[in-house]
Amino acid sequence: MLSTMASKNPLQKCFLFIILISINLIFLQAETIQISNKKTYVIHMDKSAMPLPYTNHQQWYSSKINSVTQHKSQEEEEDNNRILYTYQTAFHGLAAQLTKEEAEKLEEQDGVVAVIPETRYELHTTRSPTFLGLERQESERVWAERVTDHDVVVGVLDTGIWPESESFNDTGMSPVPSTWRGACETGKRFLKSNCNRKIVGARVFYRGYEAATGKIDEELEYRSPRDRDGHGTHTAATVAGSSVKGANLFGFAYGTARGMDPKARVAAYKVCWVGGCFSSDILSAVDQAVADGVQVLSISLGGGISTYSRDSLSIATFGAMEMGVFVSCSAGNGGPDPISLTNVSPWITTVGASTMDRDFPAMVKLGTMRSFKGVSLYKGREALSRNKQYPLVYFGRNATSPDPTSFCLDGALDRRHVAGKIVICDRGITPRVQKGQVVKRAGGIGMILTNTATNGEELVADSHLLPAVAVGEKEGKMIKQYAMTSKRATASLEILGTRIGIKPSPVVAAFSSRGPNFLSLEILKPDLLAPGVNILAAWTGDMAPSSLSSDQRRVKFNILSGTSMSCPHVSGVAALIKSRHPDWSPAAIKSALMTTAYVHDNTLKPLTDASAATPSSPYDHGAGHIDPLKAIDPGLVYDIGPQEYFEFLCTQDLSPAQLKVFTKHSNRSCKHTLAKNPGNLNYPAISALFPENTNVKVMTLRRTVTNVGPHVASYKVSVSPFKGASVTVQPKTLNFTTKHQKLSYTVTFRTVLRMKRPEFGGLVWKSMTHKVRSPVIITWLPPL
Prior knowledge:
Helix content is 24%, strand content 26%. Residues 1-35, 136-140 and 142-148 have low confidence and may be disordered. A 7-stranded parallel sheet has the order 7-10-6-13-15-16-26, with helices on both faces. Strands 19-18-24-20-21-22-23 form a 7-stranded mixed sheet, sandwiched between helices. The radius of gyration is 27 Å and the shape is globular. The protein is an alpha/beta fold. The two termini are 30 Å apart. It is built from 20 helices and 39 strands.
């Protein structure tokens, strides 16, 4: 990310000193972490290769580790606990502390499939049910019918949970099903009584974290499922929070807060700590969650992209999918840069973020009497008079390109030049609210937070510590130009509260990570969008809404933004679908979400991108924006079983040894049913990738749909036109006579003109009662 920002900003030299210091700190930390030259590795094992003398896999794993750790120090002799975890449900293997040499030796041994270094993951940091149509009259029927539906438990991998929140009240919930095998682990300020019929499980995973960073400082965080950070409480409540009337943040967003599926149950798996989330802990949580019996996993974190066979989360979630568990992951907050996605495996539902039709408007009025719209969640004693103008300053060198002096970094502001004034700060480098804290400490009375080119016109509201308004890039440039050219620049700030019915909405959030999926261009990612901007949900009682340690405010609900917030929306809707259709596979649920998604906003125009105010593409919004009520009854689904996902892997140039990490539950082998073309995976999105060879001008892809609507139904197809290719679908009509009947069709693409950029469109199957839409992407790779 640093290199990306530097390439956009010509003043790299100004950042050089900061970057060098950061690198030195990283190296110092690396020396501290690896002072013994050991680090954590995740070791994938072939379960079937265990020799007969061993009675269990734990013995076998210990023997393997001992065989490569012959020379032990006295300290290790006293504490011979190299193994941190063993995995036995979603996949088979262990996490252990090894030197690089020991790891290399281990990888050569029989029965060892892969040895993968520990990966550090990061968190991808109300009105959403109403916006999604889950409070209309027909939705009340959906929720009411849930009483007799299948019981669903959603596993949330995050920072833990704050059980006292009203969002986890279990009043009216039925007893926990006997099939649930989870547990409520105890620890600091977390008792078994903190679990109930809503929070049915709470576990904690920290061995990998402590191995990398040292013992947890219990003055800073709880070595228990209790959430001090707030992120996990927020995501869990978004998934399945009970209804809470009068929920608000300082009076903003006042109303009833509820999760996407308020009847679902939550199991909290705490895997994230102050220093990050580590793959060995995450994988242990996935493994345990599947063993506990969750039906949905919600994972709002990411750690970059590796090849499928080297991505431990990809491997673990493949195993979860095999066991029938739906997995939803955040796409990441790397937007608007292209190819910034994480969690791109086709068996994962990858979720981008969008805005809602609710906003928190604020105004900036300059001394020229010109006004600019912005947003703010400030509510405090230090209010500025709307009828008075205050001195305005900006310390950047120009209005177009931000520089180190304009970011309001800690210690960068001189009280002599700031006291009693409104300060303009450019967004970036440090947290948005922290900039306001810097201004306040320097004696400033207000802040205007201006977007840069990276964020464009997207506005994210924050609960600032002083009167502050965030404005878009265009408005910011004009305000900065005024401050720099006027000898006596002045401004006033006005916070206007909560507004609904904002148009256009939804809009793709600028921060939402973008495609294409460079691991497999034939698989569209992200899969879809869900609300992820200014989301109100439950909060921890131990952290301020700004997450700053100096902020003494405490709230029951907080407003956050990020794909971390969009992911649990999809997880909750998936739980709702699973409750109505307990026999549906994870792929069927994903198909229902994708094929019913919409691609137009509330002005009936195509979805737009907040970073550029231009139409977005499937690389930005995937199949579109979720529509929960339609997803419950999609008409047709594109189903995919574990073997077909494995067949997809067989097209990805993986060696037999690399494929073996995905075959821990069975002796799967490549049957080559996809004709060596990953585009033939029965995915709800259709992507034709023409190779560099210009002689290949025709490509045919195959799809199979399953009827989950009326027993007797007839669907007719329509396809949007493309400039570079003609598209033919055969047959043009699908006639179903029974429920669960499967029918297949082919889509043939004939190149007319090789386009330099991908073309986007849609294929729709329409009956009297249903419309089933698939995004279509045609890409021509440049000739060699």
